[in-house]
């Protein structure tokens, strides 16, 4: 029997698509392929009896084409503060286990991966302010990322907009912004001034908790 779980927290994700990201609307990725780096802070959560409050996770992802075509690779990164039980719990959630098919982005993305690199357990320096559309994610030797608001190129004022999805598998509302990310290690990326989303997450084994 699958273990029940919940996580309630915040995320920042930066992918290689143009602002808005066609993938959010069942479209094809802007450049034909998909690369993304995601950071998540769990304010409160559990996996069975294992408490996950205050822990962080991150991931580097790359697909040679649209995600639904598969053959992707991923590097899971887990907070080094997690004990053995918490590490196992987080990896099970991140790999889409104990989750109804298609119910969360973890399950969907994991099903489209061919290569999952050995997980890294290390310090994750992550901070995100969803309302202000500000974020940073630093993992020594692996990730250097920042998220910012979109700025009107003529007036210099911040653009404020969001995507609201009624039937999503990740968020109900995501604030739109932009991001810059450089990665090293088994998946090397260099994303500049591309799609960024700032969102509150409230998920369980059956999908979004409304």
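-> sequence recovered:
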């Amino acid at each position: 029997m699958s273990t029940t779980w919940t996580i309630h927290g915040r995320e920042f994700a930066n992918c290689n698509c143009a602002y808005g990201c066609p993938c959010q609307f069942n479209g094809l990725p802007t450049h034909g392929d998909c690369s993304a780096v995601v950071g998540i802070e769990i304010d409160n959560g559990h996996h069975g009896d294992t408490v996950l409050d205050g822990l962080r996770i991150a991931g580097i992802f790359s697909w040679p084409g649209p995600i639904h075509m598969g053959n992707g690779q991923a590097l899971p990164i887990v907070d080094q503060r997690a004990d053995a039980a918490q590490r196992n719990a987080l990896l099970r959630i991140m790999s889409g286990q104990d989750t109804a098919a298609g119910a969360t982005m973890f399950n969907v993305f994991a099903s489209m991966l061919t290569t999952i690199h050995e997980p890294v357990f290390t310090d994750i320096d992550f901070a995100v302010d969803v309302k202000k559309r500000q974020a940073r994610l630093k993992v020594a030797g692996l990730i250097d990322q920042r998220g910012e608001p979109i700025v009107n190129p003529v007036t210099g004022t911040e653009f404020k907009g969001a995507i609201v999805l009624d039937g999503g598998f990740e968020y109900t509302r995501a604030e739109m912004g932009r991001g810059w990310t450089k990665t090293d290690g088994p998946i090397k990326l260099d994303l500049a001034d591309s799609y960024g989303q700032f969102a509150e997450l409230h998920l369980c084994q059956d999908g979004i908790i409304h």
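The mean pLDDT is 97.
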